[in-house]
Amino acid sequence: MVNYSRAYRSYGRRDTPWERYAKVSGERISQVFEQELEGREEPFGRALDLGCGRGTYSPELAALGWDVTGVDAAPEAIAGAKARGDAAVRYVLGDATQLSLAELGTFDLFVDIGCFQGLGRQQRQAMGTGVTSLANPGATMLMLAFAWTRFRSMIEGVSQTEIEAAFPAWALLTVWPAPTAGLGWPMDRTSPQWYRMQLRSESA
């Protein structure tokens, strides 16, 4: 498991590996966010950016019309996010595996770019339970996660089976590959995937 607080302290003002990923793949990620608006009517509702880091994606979601809250367990990350001065985003110090303690309210969209994959099995179950408890009827979730590879000592991974096990109340709608071009070794040898899920109607 990644010690994110230590990582932020170590990198300081420099980009972390996941922030570098955002710079390389930002355009593709933006396309995914825009696609999520298809078929929706404004106001779109509330979005929760899980493991928001230093505010890499939350402002973009807000610019698209979502009422955005970003949550992260690393104080250094939340401090960095707030320092950006994005008044449209609410940043909260909180653990993605203990979401009920953060008093966040309920949401229509959940975004997870690299958070879930960095958790242990029990933590993943706790996160799945927490997300479900905060989901409004018909809520959707966008998750970007790396599959397991032989580089697991350097890059955390997760399988589709593990994701579905942690989110039994959610229907997996679509899965598609995320690009790795320009990431450099060993990231360009990995297999990141996008997962789009929706809360089942009987679970709402």
Automatic annotation (TrEMBL):
Q: Where is the Methyltransferase domain?
A: 48-138
Pfam families associated with the record: Methyltransf_25
The entry's protein name is Methyltransferase type 11
What PANTHER family does the database record attribute to this sequence? METHYLTRANSFERASE, UBIQUINONE BIOSYNTHESIS O-METHYLTRANSFERASE, MITOCHONDRIAL
Q: Name the GO terms of the biological process aspect.
A: methylation
Q: Which SUPFAM superfamilies does this chain map to?
A: S-adenosyl-L-methionine-dependent methyltransferases (SSF53335)
**What InterPro entries does UniProt report for this protein, alphabetically?**
Methyltransf_25, SAM-dependent_MTases_sf
Q: Name one GO molecular function term.
A: methyltransferase activity
Q: Which UniProt keywords apply?
A: Methyltransferase, S-adenosyl-L-methionine, Transferase
The source organism is Arthrobacter alpinus
